[in-house]
Amino acid sequence: MKKFFAIFFATLFIAGFCFSQTTVNVNGFGQVQALIEQGGGNQDFRVNRIRLNIFGDVAEKVSYRIQLEEGSLTYPGPGNRDNLVDFYADLKYIKGATIRVGQFVQPIGMELPLSPYALETINYSSIVSKGYSTRDRGVMIFGSPTENIDYQLALINGEGLNTNDTNEQKDWVGKVKVKIIPELSLALSHYYQPETPTAKKMTSTGAELDLKVNNLRFCGEYMMGKQTGGVKTADYYLHLSYKVTPEWQLVLRYNVSDPNTKTSGDLGTAGGEETTTIGVNYDFEKNARLQINYVIPRGKDNNKLIAQLGVKF
Ligand SMILES: [Ca+2]
Fold first, then answer.
1. What number does CATH give the domain 2-312?
2. What separation in Å is there between the alpha carbon of 172 and the centre of ligand 1?
């Protein structure tokens, strides 16, 4: 591990001598919501998030990205909710591969790398909200050896967002995505946390499918987790969307979070989830969209109606 850190800091040191053609680009978006929950729940206006994205090049082969976020809703997944979402530098000194260092999205799962502005549902699936897919600090190599194959492999702290490591162990996480035909891609991802002084090993394995035919999209993910206590968990969703016109889109999603695959009847418990979401997205301007989601969780009188206005700049 010491050797790894020596290489890591040497790479940063070399990169530091390459300042010449710095560029600074800024974009971002904001999302505000009106929420109505059944059964005496919340009924209020909210600022979901304000995201600022600053990115550019500092040299021909070195680029950077900073993403900052503020909002009244908590960022999904484990880690410290400081305002920093991403900070990383991309080093392109190896032909066909990029080395990323800093805090970035773990290469597991389909949704989190997307901008929340572009999500077809207002909320992320349980794969993100339960923390299978989050951000972390470390180093990643990624590339596309052929036009139809993308790979990512990262060595990270394993502590989640905005948190330094609390032990010597580092976690591995990687993903391979294959475009079978232009309309269909499949991906497999795996997370490996070795045994630590305080916890047994933990793994999660994900499979993704994304099919787009004309205006129709069908996608889904399955994430299987083996928690430190040996409990096996499973989260999955099936997602169907249809662009009625370039502005209007209809969305249907079914999401299950099973906190223990060996016991039945726990989807309605505190750790479980079974939710159907019916949604409409209306891009009434190029940079402004209205999303309405009717969220139907398992159980009585707990449905939610969420309207979200997003503006990007
Ligand atoms: Ca660790």
1. 2.40.160.10
2. 10
